[in-house]
User: Fold these one by one.
Assistant:
Number 1:
Amino acid sequence: MTKVTPPDAPFIVDEQHITDFREHGFARIPGLIPADEVARWREIALDTIEEDGRRAGMGGGGTALRTTSDPWWKHDTMTGLVRHPRVAAAAEQLAGTPMRVWSGQAYAKHPHDEVPTIWHEDLTLTPLDAPMNVNAWVALVDVPVERGCLIFLPDSHKRPEPHRAEMSAVKSHATTYMFNEWPELEWYPRVTVPMRAGDVTFHQSTLGHGSHGNHSDGTRLAFIISYTGASAIYQPRPGHQRMDEDLVPGQQLPDHRYPRVSDLLAEAPRP
Ligand SMILES: O=C(O)CCC(=O)C(=O)O
């Protein structure tokens, strides 16, 4: 195991999580966010989506997801969750390489909004060249199967290259592009991961995943923090949406806006 995080980090992942993440492409860490904190973040996420919500694009695929329109740094209230030291520490240890925050957004699926999230991998949608990208999916409410929890295709991150599709393929055939590009993935076993509030899953950007719509009476609420390698280069492809007007293709990401996990851990209160 590569050691990248200090021994006094606010959270140390166990070997099983590392094996799950590296071998199969994802890991679920139960109870990573304590219950009192989850209640606070739930309120903040709901308020922010209420103020600034829009339907998530997912490259043109229809989806039940509603998300915040502005990037996280324009929402003061969400900063603490995006910079959360326990989640950041876990992401970096799983990745096994120095990481930084790329984005953080709240996502709601309203009751009985039953449009699934398309089958996709995140790499195609990510305008970065990086040694590793990881999404942390933080459950802010209980998410049983009928509320539309994530479904992963374990081991799909190990398919042969190229791992990135053209954005035009996503835009023209959003709901089928992943299986059109990599037909063997259609026959991979699928793992459905129900979550308790405070649980967090971490998955690699090359892993296939999707989710069903919300067939329940309660809102499905999650916060997704995307991490990328500390050495990532901003490299948008045709069709990528521009989220940060200040970034120029070919540049490294500036620390003040895309904080390094090592800085988040250095700032974190020690017990
Ligand atoms: O919440 C969902 O339905 C999809 C989330 C997702 O695609 C991700 O976390 O990468």
Number 2:
Amino acid sequence: MKRRIGVAVLGLGWMGQAHSRSARRIPGHFPDRSYDPRLVVCADPVADRRRSALEDFGFERAVEDWRSAVEDPEVDAVWVTAPNMLHLEMIEAAAAAGKAIFSEKPIGGKPEHAVTALGHARAAGVATGVGYCYLWSPLVLHARDLIASGALGEITHYRGRFLSMYGSDPLGLLTWRFFVDQAGYGVTSDILSHSVAMARFLVGPVTEVVGMANTTIPRRPLPTGAASHYGLGAPDDPTGEVENEDFASMLCRFENGATGTFEVSRTVVGPESQNAFEVYGTKGSLIWNHERLNELQYYSVTDSPDSGYTTVYGGERFPFHGAFVPGKANSIGFEDLVTIQDHAFLEALATGTPFSPGFSEAVDVVSVQQALIDSWTSRGWQSVRDLTEVTP
Ligand SMILES: NC(=O)c1ccc[n+]([C@@H]2O[C@H](COP(=O)([O-])OP(=O)(O)OC[C@H]3O[C@@H](n4cnc5c(N)ncnc54)[C@H](O)[C@@H]3O)[C@@H](O)[C@H]2O)c1
């Protein structure tokens, strides 16, 4: 008998829709699951999105006020998919109502919000998950296993980057991501969070950092109505000021002694969604780039010293891939990663087993972000203070 898990989705934009589609697709991909997701209620202030939630996604209810969705007695788990600065109050209310919480990254817009959110979840004793969806890529899971098996030897260096073009056009709209009161920080909250989560997952904790930030496009056209962050304005549109960073870079040291470099940008031209890493060890190295998520480049000192990197294609031999398509080198995509992630979270809820990454791992990530932010003003190296220890 499968357990019915009632789901609420707060915010039906890009990621709210992606998680809603996941809930609908999960039964077809994971027939051996222990639960059945039920799309109980969605909350969004935009009437068209509420209509679509009912008609296209099959939600039972769609409401304007997210609090009534959180308090709905038929809801067991709440997905937080609204702009960053709404995360914390949604999480606080969901924890108070005793609901399991899956929040999109970065959990609030500033490091202290993730710390407070972890405190609320701990106090209420509710299960948590965070949307670092790229960690669920079958080839990233394989990379993690290869590194853990010692196949790369001792890890000496890590390069992480997330270079995106979503803000590269100066006519790109001034959406919530560019405002401090809606997004918090800029790329360090938005996409460095993914890069640091990935590095932590593969190589372990970061202990010290130094870095810089820059805002490269200071003004953008103001949107009218609900706008996607890929939308464009017109040259004569009124403009407003970008309030947070477009670019950040960071040097770091890991606890295991490895060095690291990170670069993130939303305004470069060329890389379209390049969430990528290179991991170097004494016996081999790995290269992965989300733009080619079904390929992993592997160099082994013992197996391929003369042939250079070998391309490993995704396939059912790697974790979760076979749930979507059989055989080898038949590709999966971004929303499949979201579906794997949501299935893993719901399965953990249904079986009462721990899930990672949750809010505690998100606080590990913002601990690094806080040290980076501190280095902007100190203009020197900063030790990473473990903020899970100061969580109330
Ligand atoms: N994991 C990933 O790869 C990934 C990708 C994109 C976004 N995100 C995260 O997802 C979150 C949402 O980003 P997005 O790109 O989907 O944004 P979006 O702008 O596409 O969608 C946000 C939605 O929230 C709604 N909203 C605004 N105020 C609300 C309120 N008071 N109550 C309920 N809904 C409200 C908006 O109307 C909109 O539909 C962010 O925290 C972002 O960091 C994660």
